[in-house]
Design goal:
Elements (H helix, E strand, L loop, with lengths): L2 H13 L3 E11 L4 E4 L8 E5 L4 E8 L2 E5 L5 E5 L3 E2 L3 E4 L3 E5 L8 E6 L3 E7 L4 E5 L5 E5 L3 E2 L2
Antiparallel strand pairs: 1-4, 1-7, 2-3, 4-5, 5-6, 8-11, 8-14, 9-10, 9-13, 11-12, 12-13
């Protein structure tokens, strides 16, 4: 085996040492006040507390620690036990329109302001998601108006 092939094998092995999570896998924070750290350890520097239901993208899984990305693009580590299967989306548009059907011409059910959390019920037709507000109202929102899909 040539030196270049050995180097490529070593680099490939290092790449998979921390297993990446499947592309675009999202979760929500399970409990209020979960701490995000700058490294995968409780002895690492705490960065900030994160609110319950905040959506995060899972980037890397390392045992009981998950490296996550938030809607602002910031990366941090959180313990796996603080992530829920429940999927929440956060409104990124100034105002998201939630419609009765996955159609821009459908009846407007309600509007959600920027940073409002919406529960993902199911992915809709391409470009849409069926969501529910915490007050029970539901409908379809354009994917371009939310983050967490």
């Amino acid at each position: 085996m040539s030196a270049a092939a050995r180097l490529a094998a070593v680099l490939a092995g290092l790449t998979f040492a921390a297993a990446p999570v499947r592309a675009l896998e999202f979760r929500s924070v399970a409990e209020h006040g979960a701490v995000l750290f700058d490294a995968p350890s409780q002895k690492a520097r705490p960065l900030f507390l994160v609110a319950r239901d905040t959506p995060v993208e899972m980037v890397v899984s390392l045992g009981e620690w998950i490296k996550v990305r938030d809607a602002a693009g910031d990366l941090a580590w959180i313990e796996r036990k603080f992530l829920a299967e429940r999927r929440m989306l956060i409104v990124t548009a100034g105002r998201a329109e939630v419609r009765g059907q996955a159609d821009a011409a459908a009846a407007l059910m309600f509007e959600a302001e920027k940073d409002v959390l919406l529960e993902l019920i199911e992915s809709g037709p391409p470009g849409w998601a069926r969501v529910r507000h915490r007050d029970g109202q539901s409908g379809f929102v354009r994917a371009s108006q939310v983050w967490g899909l």
